[in-house]
Design a protein that fits this description.
mainly alpha, Arc Repressor Mutant, subunit A, Tetracycline Repressor, domain 2
Length: 230
């Protein structure tokens, strides 16, 4: 009987079976992950209305049958991309706010992350969401208010209490300024017309707006902060 096998062979056999199952699961889901990654990049940059599942399958080099196996409609793909994005954002916001770093560094990380994330959504994507997927857009707006804006405002108010942020600075305006700059400057069209790099643009936008909101004492601590551009 197997459970009497010597030298832990039974446990070893179960471990091998488990590893094989994991590898098979990853193999079966690899096309799905590739579809989601490409769809996310295309949708966020160009909008989703004009992007077809046939185009995506052709670009990935997979059959239409495989594409439709995971996503029977573009609506399903759009929903999955948006929900995946929201889960990742929520997880990263939690990670950032729970770091063991000086408060000003955590706040900087959070605002910079949000600016970069929202800055990826092109106007075409936002317009398509409002027009063709209003229910999902409403979910995104609710998520933005409850999990992003609320957290940033909470931290900025705490920053004011701890004399990190200037008292005369409006909480939400700072976030809106950063997001607006990222959305209107860090686009392929604008970058192609100027000599500055995305890294230089990000660095300048963030330092001018964020650093200008700090108190004198907080600026001394912020000197040691390094922006992770990539």
């Amino acid at each position: 009987m197997v459970f009497f096998e010597p030298n832990g062979n039974c446990k070893k056999h179960k471990s091998i079976q488990k590893n094989q199952a994991i590898m098979e699961f990853k193999k079966d889901n690899e096309p799905k992950e590739r579809i989601l990654e490409l769809a996310k990049n295309r949708f966020f940059a160009q909008g989703f209305n004009k992007v077809t599942l046939d185009e995506l399958s052709g670009e990935l080099g997979i059959s239409k049958k495989t594409m439709y196996k995971f996503f029977p409609s573009k609506d399903e793909l759009v929903k999955t991309v948006v929900w995946m994005m929201m889960r990742r954002v929520e997880k990263e916001v939690h990670r950032i706010t729970e770091q063991r770093k000086p408060f000003v560094h955590r706040l900087a990380d959070l605002i910079f992350f949000i600016g970069k994330t929202v800055g990826r959504f092109s106007k075409s994507f936002q317009q398509d969401m409002k027009r063709f997927a209003p229910n999902i857009w409403a979910e995104m707006e609710k998520f933005r208010q409850e999990h992003i804006v609320a957290k940033v405002v909470e931290m900025i108010r705490q920053a004011k209490k701890e004399n990190v942020f200037r008292q005369d600075i409006n909480d939400e305006v700072i976030v809106m300024m950063l997001v607006s700059c990222f959305q209107n400057i860090l686009t392929p069209t604008v970058l192609a017309e100027h000599s500055f790099s995305p890294k230089e643009a990000m660095y300048t936008i963030f330092h001018v707006i964020f650093e200008g909101s700090l108190t004198e004492e907080a600026r001394k601590e912020f000197v040691h902060y390094k922006i992770n551009i990539l």
